[in-house]
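worker-03 picked up job from queue 'complexes'. Input manifest follows; four sequence lines, order preserved.
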Amino acid sequence: MSTIHDVAEKAGVSVKTVSRVLNDYSHVSKNTRDKVQKAMDELDYSPSSIARQMRLGDTLSVGLMYGDPTSGYQSGLNQAFLEACFNAGRYLVAELLDESDRDWLSQVGRFLDKTKIKNVVLVPPLCDSEEVHELLRQRGVNFVLISPSQTFPSCVSIVIDEQKAAIQITKHLINQGHTRIAHLTGDVMHVASLLRQRGYEKALKDAGLPIRSNFIKEGGFDYKKALSCTQELLSLPENTRPTAIFCSNDEMAAAAMMVASKMGLSVPEQVAIAGFDDSFISKVLWPQLTSVAQPFSKMAAEAMQQLNNFPKSQNFDPIVRVLPHKLYVRESSQL
Amino acid sequence: MSTIHDVAEKAGVSVKTVSRVLNDYSHVSKNTRDKVQKAMDELDYSPSSIARQMRLGDTLSVGLMYGDPTSGYQSGLNQAFLEACFNAGRYLVAELLDESDRDWLSQVGRFLDKTKIKNVVLVPPLCDSEEVHELLRQRGVNFVLISPSQTFPSCVSIVIDEQKAAIQITKHLINQGHTRIAHLTGDVMHVASLLRQRGYEKALKDAGLPIRSNFIKEGGFDYKKALSCTQELLSLPENTRPTAIFCSNDEMAAAAMMVASKMGLSVPEQVAIAGFDDSFISKVLWPQLTSVAQPFSKMAAEAMQQLNNFPKSQNFDPIVRVLPHKLYVRESSQL
DNA sequence: TTGTATGCGTTATCAA
DNA sequence: TTGATAACGCATACAA
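worker-03 finished. Artifact:
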């Protein structure tokens, strides 16, 4: 394994010059640059990221504190960040956040102590805590918010247009001829859930359809809760019961589908079902689930970029990157 | 951020002594050890893993090349390794293996070049390639095999007793009074699948029940294939059709359950169903799925240990660590 | 049992 | 435009 010294010797220059070429400094003559480049190629040299980290004091690690990793959302996110870090030559250092212990602040503090990490990704629900933002700022840690509920001052956020996605999905159901469309909401604390509900309501309104409060059930992003919600909905008399259900995530859609098939109702003929997240669950459902795909890979890649070019100043205008989602219409909602 | 020097000064000893305490060497007097420990606590000192990596030349990264990350098995494994690495102060560096490109050797080679990694975890199907073993050995890379199909020479393996687990699960079904028990196998190339089938057959035999070849279907660990397999099984005349189905993974069990409920057969009353892996899918099924839990966390932690204490010699007696699995009996197979 | 001095592969300071 | 040398934080050969 060759070092910067080997390259310097081979090229007949000093190590500093090689370093300059490596980090493409401006003040290097074309001639020496070529010489150095040639030497590097011949020696098949690649710099040691460890030594670089050591010297720079910075760490190539990206921190991530996550909640329940068995949820489709978090699992997709973790996977995407694992990939994005690899592609960026960085390392993902992830620790489970104990959501039941509400003292997030000290949990994050301990995490930072242990890892000495200077780049962090904040996912829901952590991303909505201004206390945490402040802590990170104090410690000089760069951080990016994934799907925060609002635009926070001096923060970089990466989001999708939740409301628009919900409108699309609801419109799709309307276009299929449905007029009685129910909605299972997510967690009330979660603004994504609120935005999706708002989109659902707007789409109905735009189509001149009534918004029935008994068609909106609080599912809490939870499979079990969704079971009973769906049970209630589908137990209504046939001519008043919903013919379509839009669920705020795929877990709840799976529940809805299970209840429907238990009750002898066929999907999509008698009940159309749509989810949100396009998580792995859609692979183990039959019929396949209509859902909105979050662009996890793009979100993670964008997060890496934003961390690399993080604003130097503590106070800056909020940066919000809205990434494109994608509606996948599948058999669960289409004849 | 305090360094080893600060600790040394505060404790009134040399850095070397602090280093000794850190890596718990034997030849340190109780007295000085305490002094040093106290100083470390007071300064809230924690060693820089970067400097340590630099000095040792070794990398704290653990490499993992995985297949489809949306499978319950791989996803559970990835998650477990992410945690285990964190706990061991290591980093998980994971890259997707392109399984369709059968030239695994050069894929692994490129991965090693890029990352300079010296510790690798090999999961199915990669763990069964002796070519890959040889490549790693040549490069001086430590590696651990997860659930390999056999005991390879000079290799460290971490496994569960697949056959025993399958026997347990089948016996459980027999104890529930079932005599017509079907089995959906996994991938024929996969020895885990074979061992599970063998366990299934042994349990039947031990109970004096016949092994019917038309009750054994090749499901390939695949949801879609399992749909049609189950369809065939449950379309048999009522008095000859299976009353229980043991599936070689949870994805297939999900399929079986879906088909059953579509056909109007209740689970577990008319068909009992059991899976394998106890993956996240069991959370989105109703009734909840009986399954065998692979001890992912323990496997990952054990792998870290084995990498840390890897045999110095190129040739050593195979090490096989059999970890305990756990059968979770849930509603899908029990009245 | 404990301490001193050196080097790991980079980048940065300062001088040339 | 270039180069000699120090420094990052740790572990170890060698010395005491």
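worker-03 released lock.
Residues 86 and 326 of chain B are 25 Å apart (CA to CA).
Residues 72-87 of chain B form the longest helix (16 residues).
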